[in-house]
Predict the 3D structure of the following.
Amino acid sequence: MNLLIHPLLKTRDGRKIGEFPIGSVSWDAATGTVLDCPDRDLFRLLHRHFSWPIPVRRARGGPASALLHEWEELAPGSEEHFREAVSRLHRLGFVARPLGSQD
Amino acid sequence: MLDPLFTLSSQNQRLTENTQRSSDAVRTQALKEGKEKGRRGNLDSTEISSDLNQMGEDLLGSMDPDLFGRSGRSSLFKRLWEETVEQEAEEEGEGEEESGRRHRDGLLMEVPEPPDESDEPPPPEEPARPSPVLDVSEPPASRPEAAPATDEPPRTGSPPVLPGREVLEFSAPEKKPAPQVEKEPPSMARPTSQGSLLDISEGFLLHESTVEFEAADEAATAVEAEPLPAHLEAVLAALMQGDSRSTGWPRLQRLLGRFGAGVLGLCVAQKVRVCLLPRGSGLRSHPTVRAVVGQGKARGGAYLPESRTCLVEEEALSAPPWGFHPVLFYFAQAWDHALGGEEFASLQSAAVKASFDACRRGLPGHTFPDGFAGESPVHYFAQAVESYLAENDSTDPLWTREDLYDFDRSMFSYVEYLWRQGNRTA
C-alpha cells in the first residue's frame, strides 16, 4: 500500500488537499512502515506519529444484546496500526492519498 | 614542453596581477569608507531615522527634518543662532565687548566681536558654532535658574528657540505632567477603542485576551445555569431517568437538548430511555452489559437495543471524555433505532449505505474516522451524528464537525438534513 502525503490547506470553503505531496508512506508486511519525507522536521513529526501507540475503540456486543465500546492501545508494527495512523494524519495537517487519486 | 623560464615569468605575472587586484580592492574599499564617513559627517542624524531619507516632503509634513536643522537648511538655523547671539550681545551692553566672553544658559562661550548691523551676510571666517566651555569657578550671577541646565544632557531634539527663553521652557513643563497623570484614570480601566496601532494606552493584547477567556468561562457557566425551554424540559423529563439532583444531570440535559425537541419527541414516542448511572456504579452494574463485556473495561455509555435504553455513566459528564462524547454517540444510535422502527434506520437508508460503502472502498471524498466507525453503518451513522453535534466537548477529539464537513461531505449533508427534518416536524 503506497500512499502520498499531501498537506491540508485551509481555504474559505473548508480544507483542501494541497497539490504537491510532501512525502510518501507505505506498508509492507516484510519491512513494515516505510516513510519517505525530504523535510527533516516533517519527517521527524511523521515518524513520531507512525511509531507511537494509538488508542483505538473496539466495538463490543451487537444489535441483539448491547452496543458499547472499549479502549485498546495499538502498538506500532501492525497493518491496523498503520491504517489508524493514516486515518489520523489530518490532526497533523496532512492527508494520505493513493497515487493517482483525484478529489 | 614549456620553457621553465617562461613558466616562471608567467607565474610572476599572475602574482603581480593578483597583487595589483587585491591592492586595488583595498584602495577602493578605503575610498568607499572615506566617502561614507564624509557623508555621515555632514548629516546630523543623531535623532532622526535614516528612513526619512526615503520619504518625500509631502509625506513628511510637519516632521520635515529641515525644521530640525538636519539637512541643507541647517545653514538657516546657524544664521538664526548667530543673529540671536548678536542681538543679545547688543542688548547687554557694549561695555563687555572687550572681555569677549559672555555667559549664556550657564555656559561661558567665546563670542567674537559683534558684526556690523548691515545687510551683508556674516563672513565665513567667523566661528559658526560657539564652543561651549563650562566655567565652574565663576557661577553665573545674572541667571541662576539656568545653572541646572548645564548638568542635563544636551537636548538635541528641541526646536531652535531663542536662548533667553530656553530657561522658561525647560522649567515650565517639568511641573505640568504630574497633575495630568493624577487626573487620568488607569489606562486598563478605560473602555477599549483601537484608534491607532501604536496606541498602547488601552494596555496590551495579552491583558485583553485574558479578560476574554475569563468572560468565556463565565459565559459557559451562565449558559449551564440558564433554564431550558419549557417544551424541551418536558420532553427531557419524559426521556431521562436517574437522580436529577446529581451534578451531571444538567450537563446531560444540555447534551441531549442538542438533538432538538422534535428528535427527542420521536425518541420518547418510540419508548427510548436515557438512564444516568450514579457515580461509582459503572456500566457493568447492568446485567446485559456485564454479560457482553465480562471483565472488560467498558466506559462512558452503552445502548441496549432490546429495551431501547441508553446508559450513561456520570463520570463521563464530570470531565471531558477523550476522543468522543459517549452521550452523543449512543443517543445517536437510539435515534437511529427510533427512526427505523424495529430495525436501525442506517441499515435501511440508501444514503448511509452508499456513503459507508464509498468509505470502505476508499473513494475520494469519503473517509472513515477510524476503524470503529467502519464496523457497521450503525456505528458509522452514530459517529457522524456525534461529530455533527459536538461542540468541543471532548479532549483531543477523533473527528470534529469540521472533519466531517471536509472529509465526508455527503454524510454531513445527510445528517444535517435528518436533524433539520426531525425538528421541523415537531
In short: The longest strand of chain B covers residues 273-277.
